[in-house]
Amino acid sequence: xxxxxxxxxxxxxxxxxxxxxxxxxxxxxxxxxxxxxxxxxxxxxxxxxxxxxxxxxxxxxxxxxxxxxxxxxxxxxxxxxxxxxxxxxxxxxxxxxxxxxxxxxxxxxxxxxxxxxxxxxxxxxxxxxxxxxxxxxxxxxxxxxxxxxxxxxxxxxxxxxxxxxxxxxxxxxxxxxxxxxxxxxxxxxxxxxxxxxxxxxxxxxxxxxxxxxxxxxxxxxxxxxxxxxxxxxxxxxxxxxxxxxxxxxxxxxxxxxxxxxxxxxxxxxxxxxxxxxxxxxxxxxxxxxxxxxxxxxxxxxxxxxxxxxxxxxxxxxxxxxxxxxxxxxxxxxxxxxxxxxxxxxxxxxxxxxxxxxxxxxxxxxxxxxxxxxxxxxxxxxxxxxxxxxxxxxxxxxxxxxxxxxxxxxxxxxxxxxxxxxxxxxxxxxxxxxxxxxxxxxxxxxxxxxxxxxxxxxxxxxxxxxxxxxxxxxxxxxxxxxxxxxxxxxxxxxxxxxxxxxxxxxxxxxxxxxxxxxxxxxxxxxxxxxxxxxxxxxxxxxxxxxxxxxxxxxxxxxxxxxxxxxxxxxxxxxxxxxxxxxxxxxxxxxxxxxxxxxxxxxxxxxxxxxxxxxxxxxxxxxxxxxxxxxxxxxxxxxxxxxxxx
Length: 644
What we know:
single chain, about 650 residues, alpha/beta, seven-stranded antiparallel beta sheet, six-stranded parallel beta sheet, about 20% strand, elongated
């Protein structure tokens, strides 16, 4: 059985004396928990006050303050004076509290206090008194054993070293087996429905639970705040298979697959479910220099990839930000700043190594599992976990990289002009436009672009028309390797991503940027419901790949459009009237859960073909949490109820 001690600061000489000694002794003797409990202190202090008047015959508030020790302060002090032992303090129920209610702490202050304690002693703080069982001070060994049968530690009040030693002699917490398991504070935060003790041995050492010190660094992603019940971090394909075996035993839980966690959709984390994080699988290897064939792990970022390819004079187009992971983008599309010159990222994929839902490790290419290879390029999240990607990369020298800032009072005209200039630009020029809410009738516009040419005169010639769509306020144009463009991304340290809430984003492909679309987009922006609006220029090399070559059919689109807001319903209200302009959507930037979005992403013949592949490689629909392609859909009349 696991035993702990309850310490009352008002009885133990204060936090700077006996309390610390007893807590340290409990830790040294291998007890499971120290609970700070002042539940009876106020009554005792009040009794003392009633019996001890000051010089004028009145009770002393100062005496009250010296007699009653705030348990939160006591726990914070003990956290700094101990190293390992779990520390418990009851978090008062503050439901319905408000700043005007002086009798109950305000909710946000209590939450902040809990957050501060967790930062001070990561993985050691317990604020839910249901995590332990209270026993009387004089409980016998038999009584303690009976209380411990429920699996929770039993906490006994103590105020002397002799009492601590008695509990240590009765406890099994000092055994080698008990010392190897997670601290009690970590185990107290485990989520129901997860068999934590059956995590495969290959994954145990790197697995992260909600109570572990490193949990905050893996819980959320770039835009979405997450609270998964367990994060598994395999380093090899074999460990990925073990992780998916664990997932197959937990199909009642959400399942997220994460490479670098930068995806706009946020589906690489969840609430209470499983996350398989392949971020450590980030090797980059040149397989054949003559063919420019490179093998890249899913956890590598495009910043790392561009840096590795640069010494060879190579590059691989990869979105617009170097912090994005390879795994997510390489199975969705990759509409990047080299797109018009060199095509999508998936256009360069020659093979992918995957672990399937049943644990098999296979290689898909034009010759091996060709149908799966077709499906992976555009809908890969539905079919397995990519463990390595083989790309044929391009020879790319110095490029012109531009960041231009402009403002305009006529956003419709600016969008119309941009659409014409970007579509008619030479294929070596790819420019993205970003804008958002108006400010006092003005719109700020940012243009990001690459001219795949090292000649400064040509770069200026290509960019000059873009600079005329508004009043130029910022101009930064550099000649740099592609690695210089991707290298500006910030590295994500052990603190992880800091996303919060749920992203609200809409995506679409635009066949042509007409004046009618520009007018409707201007109306959209005037509503103030969209804080981020982006147009990514397509065409050029992207359009030269046949629409049926892979599960990315939207080859003739002129632009990819993204709009982000703060509320799904509000964004739908202003976005849906624009849908008649669109032809399809890009899944990576879409968070609309409505079933029809899947049918927007894939035309009927493509979706039917994807279902056939799904039935062959994931018939039980393990990979269902990222725009699910259900292998066994209900008839059309009821499909909307379960498609997504």
